[in-house]
Amino acid sequence: MKTHYTVALAMLAGFGLGAIAVQSLHAQAKPPIYMIADNDVTNPEGYAKEYLPLAQPTIKAHGGRYIAAGKGTAIDGEPPKGRVVVLAWDSMEQLLAWRNSPEYVAARKVGEKYAKFRTFAVEGVSN
After folding, report:
1. Are residues 70 and 108 in the same domain?
2. Do 79 and 21 share a structural domain?
3. Using the 8-state DSSP alphabet, how is residue 32 labeled?
4. SS3 annotation, 33-90
5. CATH code of the domain in which 42 resides
6. In this structure, are 57 and 119 located in the same domain?
7. Each residue's pLDDT tens digit, 10-58
8. Contact 89, 64 (CB under 8 A)
9. I want to staple 124 with a disulfide (CB 3.0 to 4.6 A). Which of 3, 32, 95, 110 is the partner?
């Protein structure tokens, strides 16, 4: 009989420790960083054929993820001027490492021939 109590107590303790570990891991998780771009594209063909093939692989290589891209719709105020892009990053450091990488700096020089870029970042919220 004592063996049954010992096993049950060990299982209960293991379950409790596991629950505490999972809770602390969730508490440590930082919310993502979102980069929003409002790109006023002056030459859609050049943008699509010359800039995007250079820029998109650098985003993925540096851990960025596309969340949305396309024409924005105004809800209040002025509508976006051009193509709106939302990217997610695990941290601001990761976003800045991508933005300052030699690969993206070179791609951006090409992109500036075809668009005016307006970008900013905002921290996500924990749920």
Report:
1. yes
2. no
3. P
4. EEEEEEEEECCHHHHHHHHHHHHHHHHHHCCCEEEEEEECCCCCCCCCCCEEEEEEEC
5. 3.30.70.100
6. yes
7. 555 565 556 554 454 455 588 999 999 999 999 999 999 999 999 999 9
8. yes
9. 32
Contact 98, 124 (CB under 8 A): no
Distance CA 123, CA 127 (A): 13
Q: What three-state secondary structure class fits 88?
A: strand
Q: Which amino acid is at 100?
A: N
Pair 70, 21 in one domain: no
Containing domain of residue 16, as a range?
Answer: 1-29
Residue 22's alpha-carbon distances to 30, 33, 115, in angstroms, are: 15, 23, 45
Is residue 9 predicted with pLDDT exceeding 70? no
pTM (two decimals): 0.73
Dig out the tokens for 112 from the structure: 């500036």
Of 57, 58, 51, the closest CA to residue 95 belongs to: 58
